[in-house]
Design brief:
This protein has one helix at 31-37, and strands spanning 5-8, 15-18, 24-28, 42-46, 52-56, 73-75. The protein has 76 residues and is mainly β. Bound molecules: zinc ion. Zinc ion (ZN) binds at residues 28, 30, 32-33, 66, 73.
Length: 76
Amino acid sequence: MKLPITGGCNCGAVRFEISTEPRLTSVCHCRECQRFSGGGGMTNIVLQKSDVSFTKGAPISHDEMGTGDASSSSLG
Ligand SMILES: [Zn+2]
C-alpha cells in the first residue's frame, strides 16, 4: 500500500492524509452501514486518531453505536 493515503469528501471541503496502513479493514452490510452509505453496505477502516491528519477543513463528529449484528458483517 502506497503511503500516505489521501482523500476527502465529495465536495472537497474536507481533505485528509493517513500516514500508516489501516489496522483493520472490513466490508459491513449491517442496517446502520446500509443507511449510512445509502447502498448495500460500507467499507470501513480502523485507525489511531494520530494516524490521520486533516489537510483541509474538518469533519463533523458523529457517534453511533451499532447493533453488534456480526452475522451481517465480514472482516478482511
Ligand atoms: Zn455495519
